[in-house]
User: What shape does this take?
Amino acid sequence: MSVLEVVLQGRAGTLPIDVAVRVEGAPLVLVGPNGAGKTQTLMMILGATRPSHGRITLDGRPLFDAERGLDLPVEQRRIGYLPQRYALFPHLDVLSNVAYGIAASNRAERLRLGREMLRELDAEALAPRRPAELSGGETQRVALARALASRPRALLLDEPLAALDVSLRRDMRRFLAERLRAWSLPTVVVTHDRADAEALDGDVVVLEGGAIVQRGQLAALAAHPATPFVTRLVSGADQ
Amino acid sequence: MSAAAPAARRGAGRRALLARAWPAALGLLSGLLLLLVALPIAGLLFSAPPRQLLAGLSDPLVVPALRLTLFTTTVSLLVILTCGTPLAWVIARRTSRAGRASRIWRALETLVELPVVLPPAVAGVALLLAFGRRGLLGPALAAAGIGLPFTRAAVVVAQTFVAAPFYFQAAIAAFRRLDPDLILVARTLGARPPRLLFTVAIPVSWPSLAGGAAMSWARALGEFGATLMFAGNMSGRTQTLPLAIYTALESDLRTAQSLSILLVAIAFALLVAIRAGARR
Assistant: This one.
């Protein structure tokens, strides 16, 4: 069973940061008001930015350790990332997008594995299409397939459903929750939507001003909301 | 009251006059500039019968100048693309965050773009003072047995110097416009820096890069002042089309005219071809 352990402390740029989480099994749901440091936290786990103190280990393998001066570059961390706007490579067709991160000896093998991953996400028919021709939900599936095809050891999703319209969001939420459970990769999902947290059924971590103010199952948060933001979140008033 | 009335009438009269004169003034001023631009172009194209223009192309200056121009501008463009693309990429990446290192890279960026505002004559002097016999690198080049000024290589150096900034500016702007998430995602997928540049940054920025290359090529094609001072004006060796036009002008205006039309045609064809390629 894979485990992602993250301790981020001190400062990250101008933002003070104090986050310690252990992700294993069920996805970790990261919520918080705008500017709370959610995306910043993902950036630090990916290795795009670094905090002044802390350490990150994935399956026991250290990725970052401020004290020891260890800081693996993004491309060696093997963490899949789904940005909010998905960021498919606009000049490549869907299959080439998915095959981009596959480590295989030759191109034919890469494409075969890419096709397999698309099939797993019920998106094989999209293979020859260009990203510009895809709908929001299709784009999301392809981006997810691309992230998974590189066999990451952990997965970070930044507001995976925010770019979709409301009717589609419900279907994709169920789809995503099921698949994440099936893959059982350590996964961090940033969201601002109570319904996402509910569907993903993982621990919720509330971030405010760069620090964790509350964590636990959604029901526990609802019973004793620690801040006005949590109160609004659990009542669903933020949507 | 009685004193104010005539003044008010005078004001109204002035306004009416201005209302009538305004369209005429606008027309006159803009017409003047249009004429100034259109007349020389008309003169270039229509002041001689085509037969005479074709005859002008048979001048012995023409073929060597044409060959040299196509060769040197192609080499210059290749140098600009090969060196300018990585430099623009590095600078765009290094200046994306604040800090002291970023300021140094910004200063470098300004330096590379400087030739845009440098008068060509100044560029010529500067090139001589760098690579000439008594220039900064003069002794070193002489020791290596290389004499750069007044050679074909000098033509390429002059063209590269003045034309590089046009491509460089376009490339750096394009790389800055890239969605940072594209780069980050590619890195999470295991792409190391060279792969990022060749499989994401360049293909995504391709239309802007091609546009910048077209501008650079056009500038190299027209390069005159710096080439004249640094490479000289020797037919078959350093005489490019613009210099051949200058030489022809002393003896035969028609040859100069034919060469000019030829140069415009080449520039125009290149521009159209590259634009079409970028839209592909």
Notes: DSSP finds twelve helices and no strands in chain B. Chain B has a mean pLDDT of 88. The CA atoms of residues 206 and 278 of chain B lie 7 Å apart. Chain B touches chain A at residues 179, 181-182, 184-192, 199-200, 203-204, 206 (CB under 8 Å).
